[in-house]
Amino acid sequence: MGAAEIRLRLGGISRQRVYQLTHRSDWPAPYDELIQGKVWRRDDVEAWIKQHRPDLNDQAP
């Protein structure tokens, strides 16, 4: 998942908020860094959401 997918998955949060979240010590490490930016494994992001945002668990794509 890239930042845009994370934004949508977390309910349309701002780019700035995605930046803040992805720099937290408890956020999963990126899978890779592309020219367009960092990308994360969907399973890692979903695990973080399950733990920190349980209100969004039933909205998984």
List keywords for this structure.
single chain, 61 residues, two-stranded antiparallel ribbon, 2 strands
Give the overall average pLDDT.
93
* Sheet with the most strands: spatial strand order: 1-2
Task: Give the end-to-end Cα distance, rounded to a whole number of Å.
Answer: 12 Å
Number of strands: 2
H/E order of the elements?
HHEEH
Question: Largest sheet, described in full?
Answer: 2 strands, antiparallel
Unreliable residue runs: none
Q: Structural class, judged by helices and strands?
A: mainly alpha
Count of DSSP helices?
3
| Tally of individual domains | 1
Which value, in Å, is the CA radius of gyration?
11 Å
Name the shape in a single word.
Answer: globular
Specify the helix fraction band.
Answer: 40-55%
Roughly what fraction of the amino acids lie in strands?
A: 5-15%
In short:
This is Regulator. With 61 residues, the protein is mainly alpha-helical. The protein contains 3 helices and 2 strands.
Describe what this molecule looks like in 3D.
This protein is mainly alpha-helical. The chain has one domain (3-59). It contains 3 helices and 2 strands. Strands 1-2 form a two-stranded antiparallel sheet. Strand 1 (32-34) and strand 2 form a beta hairpin. It is globular and about 30 Å long. The mean pLDDT is 93.
How do the helices and strands line up, and which of them pair or pack?
Elements lengths: L2 H7 L5 H8 L9 E3 L2 E3 L2 H11 L9
Antiparallel strand pairs: 1-2
